[in-house]
Write a structure and sequence with these properties.
- Helix content is 30%, strand content 25%.
- It is α+β, with helices and mostly antiparallel strands and 197 residues long.
- It has one domain.
- Strands 1-4-3-7-8-9-2 form a seven-stranded antiparallel sheet, covered by helices on one side.
- β5 and β6 form a beta hairpin.
- The chain is globular and about 45 Å long.
Length: 197
Amino acid sequence: MNSEHLARTMPECGLRFLGLRRSTGIPPYLAGMVTSRLPDEGRLDRTVGLDDPDRVVKANADWYELGTEFGLFSENRRFLLSLPVSVALEGADEPPEAVWGLVELLDTWDIMGKGGEIQMTGWAYGCPAFVMSAVDGSVFVQGTMWQDSMGTAILPAPHRVKALRDVARLNVGKSYRTAAENEATLAWLARGDEVDA
């Protein structure tokens, strides 16, 4: 999946692709751990039953409301979306890693339905599987399927969550992490240190 493909395909689900973003200081692998966090760590969920015939419409509305309330969108409705793009595809001689894509929400969109169908924000229509972050990393968002429901989990101020910080520290320097991931992880940890100081 290359940048041309992303730019051509994303508008089908209501996203404008604005390019890959590395050196964000926001590790995508940490943003993908929202559903493993607990409510007392700040995680909030909105779910819709799989047996609800309006589940895609409702799940879309829930995603947008949570994103708006907790600051996923910048003033021009931009945010980061973790993409199935590897560094290897971009010509680097390193192991694959998740890469952020900067996207802008268009006026007409369907993250939970069409986004899954074209495999940008899920693995099939009405089957969300996405990881997102505010451009400044102030909130992480994950879309997923549970046993009998689908929906969105959101984690405000993720840099303050001790369990995530512990995972980040354990990942620094591991052989399965690229140099870019290590750099992002260290920058992310430093952000939390500044808040704690």
